[in-house]
Design brief:
Shape: globular
Helix content: 25-40%
CATH superfamily: endopeptidase domain like (from Nostoc punctiforme)
CATH topology: endopeptidase fold (from Nostoc punctiforme)
CATH architecture: Alpha-Beta Complex
Structural class: alpha+beta
CATH class: Alpha Beta
Distance between the termini: 36 Å
Strand content: 15-25%
Number of strands: 8
Number of helices: 5
Radius of gyration: 14 Å
Strand order of the largest sheet: 3-8-4-5-6-7
Order of helices and strands: HHEEHHEEEEEHE
């Protein structure tokens, strides 16, 4: 699905319930597509890594400060089954031979947005792609009322 059509589909999606992620999360995340990648990066101007990207989106949309690493983010978010994923939830992958080494934001229709690497920067990918399917580590939902989710870890 082209980004413009994806954005339109997200805008027309039904309103989220209190126990589902805010629709602002995927909308803002998609607006960052094309931002450069930079290991350790937290700015769309100078570059974002995967956890910096997710942290920026949650800070800007919900005012939630997440821990700095994908592993730490996985520890403060609520575990979900893959069939429970809603747009705005987090998807985790084992890309560096350890659990939860990469994170992205689920968009719906088996697609997610993430800060991929130096070649792609922030981009949309499919959970159905062989690479991502084989490395899928789990899904999580950030619940803003959870005290741990609002604590910014220094790691």
């Amino acid at each position: 699905m082209k980004p413009v059509f994806l954005l339109l589909a997200l805008l027309l999606a039904p309103a989220a319930h209190a126990d589902t992620p805010s629709e602002d999360i995927p909308l803002y995340a998609v607006s960052l597509v094309g931002s450069p990648y930079r290991l350790g990066g937290t700015s769309p101007e100078t570059g974002l890594d995967c956890s910096g990207f997710v942290g920026l989106v949650f800070k800007q949309t919900l005012g939630v400060l997440l821990p700095r690493t994908s592993v730490a983010i996985s520890e403060v978010a609520q575990t979900l089954a893959q069939n429970e994923l809603q747009p705005g939830d987090l998807v985790f992958f084992n890309t560096l031979r350890h659990a939860f080494s990469h994170v992205g934001i689920y968009l719906g229709d088996n697609r997610f947005v993430h800060a991929a690497n130096n070649r792609g920067g922030v981009m949309v990918s499919s959970l159905n792609d062989h690479y991502w399917h084989d490395r899928f580590d789990g899904a999580r939902r950030v619940i803003p009322e959870t005290p741990a989710a609002s604590v910014h870890a220094a790691d």
